[in-house]
Design brief:
five-stranded parallel β-sheet, globular
Length: 126
């Protein structure tokens, strides 16, 4: 299974989501701010990035722009995660280069479907 990079500053969200993804067979890498997420994306080349939009140091929009600007990382799918569910928030995330958008609190079945669509893989049994 491709590695997933989870870029999330909220410890509770980060722990809950990474555990749930690991139970489904994913290797999950974790970054706590946008700059760390960008560095990890460049170093680890994950199969997919789950990017919180509201991050310290560098927000998710800028981190996404930089991931998508670099030749070695531009093809990595990025799913924006945010508590802001306004149409404008979705448009900003997609304009920055995100490949999809999902809202928090995360509904795991919906997010897993988006991950499957971006990775082209089936969800392994629990």
């Amino acid at each position: 299974m491709p590695k997933i990079l989870l870029v999330e500053d909220n410890e509770m969200n980060r722990d809950m989501l990474s555990r749930r993804l690991q139970r489904r067979g994913h290797e999950v890498l974790v970054a706590v701010d946008g700059a760390m997420g960008l560095a990890m994306a460049q170093r680890e080349l994950p199969g997919l990035i789950l990017m919180d939009m509201s991050l310290p140091v560098m927000d998710g929009l800028e981190a996404t722009r930089q991931v998508k600007a670099a030749p070695e990382t531009r093809s990595i799918p990025i799913i924006a995660l945010t508590a802001n569910a306004l149409v404008e928030d979705r448009e900003k995330a997609l304009a920055a280069g995100c490949d999809d958008f999902d809202t928090k609190p995360v509904e795991l079945p919906r997010l897993l479907e988006k991950i499957r669509n971006k990775l082209g893989a089936s969800d392994p049994p629990r």
